[in-house]
Amino acid sequence: MGFTSTLTKAAVSVAEKLSGAKAMLVIARGSPEQIPVQFNPSEYRISESTEFSEKSRRRKDEPIVNFNGKPLSTLNVKLYFDCDEISSAASLAAGAVKALAGSGSDKDITKTINKINSLTVIDGETHRPPGVVFVWGSLQFSGYAERVVVTYTMFDNKGKPLRAVVDLTLKGLNGASSEQKSPFMSPDRTKARTMTEDTNIWNMAAKEYGDVREWRRIADANGVMNPLDIPVGKVLRVPSITDNTGGR
Hints:
Elements: H1 9-17, E1 24-28, E2 33-36, E3 44-47, E4 52-55, E5 64-67, E6 73-82, H2 88-93, H3 110-117, E7 131-136, E8 139-155, E9 161-174, E10 191-194, H4 201-209, H5 215-222, E11 235-238
Antiparallel strand pairs: 1-2, 1-7, 3-6, 4-5, 6-9, 7-8, 8-9, 10-11
Helix pairs in contact: 4-5
């Protein structure tokens, strides 16, 4: 099951229909719940990376580099919430949603912040936190909350929070194309290769593992007794470099 398939399809559908003029969080919990961001962020950061490991080779300076696939993307964004009456005029001019957490006289933003904090709570039935989609403009980032840090910066005379900054970190996929970025062609994955007239088991080992001596790994995996007698057209199993059943 793919990562995005664990998200509520309805939440992704809702996110796709949003205009994107206003940044929005869509929570995949029952009926998708939308949390509009009062102020569009001034920036957001998306981190992409590649995982790999190294295997040393005898009598060789350079190791075999095994690419282990592409980890999930990371989105980090700061969201600002302000229900203070003093800044309400400026907020409205900027297109903000006044009294997002409540109505009229209730300026406490705790309700909205609690909804965002709930993104880190693991559900007892699904055994995972709710999925969330952050959508703004051309960005549609689907994932799960890895970290939520809330800083309250202003309060009324009764101690109710009026302003808050939410530092939100999501782990997920930056659009559907992210699922296609890992080629799954690394030597840490089992593959199948067909023998051709210009291919032998030695150059196959050199191409797949970066070490011609790893031909024994392929031979052992396919029960090859004579590496010079492999018929053209035979499909050989090229085992993972981490498979210890073959090679030396």
